[in-house]
Amino acid sequence: MGTYSISEKKELLKIARQAIREFLETGERRYPDHSNPKYQEHRGAFVTLHRKGKLRGCIGHPLPVAPLLQSVVDNAVAAAFEDPRFSPLTREEFGEIDLEISILTQPLPVKSYRDIHLGRDGIIVGKGLNRGLLLPQVPVEQNWDLEEYISYGCLKAGLPMNEWQKGVKIETFQAEVFGEKDLRQDQNGT
After folding, report:
1. What is the pTM of this model?
2. Which of 30, 79, 124, 187 has its CB surrounded by the most CB atoms within 10 Å?
3. Per CATH, the architecture of 108-173 is what?
């Protein structure tokens, strides 16, 4: 993908962090005015929070249901305060989190799980009303092979881990992923 400049990535991360700070202080979401047309494009997006290297929240929209700027603000606040796997973020934790944004392409169906490229493709696994999404960076971070990736996709969808062997719908998408930690390292030349 590579469609966002370093300065745009930094700006989007700053907007996400400011949205969390604003919500901590006022309990309200504010959407900054911005003239960048890329931020007005409807895009699927996720915001992930890590604290001391561990997942602290991750929420997003897989489909392009809102302008990118709105998705970043909404998902930053949701990842910090509404992820059901975690308690709401506290003021004390705020300075310890690292933010990561994933901007998604439109999901497309694949004929076989063998068409999935680890590290490039995120997946949406579905059967009936059940759907589960895993971002493309997850199998790399977890050191999963392709079958483990699909199995955990099934689990995320609320299905048995081996359900993919019986037949599920699989869609893939790609993501432009960038985080505060990565951009700080790039800036420091490491």
Report:
1. 0.85
2. 79
3. 2-Layer Sandwich (3.30)
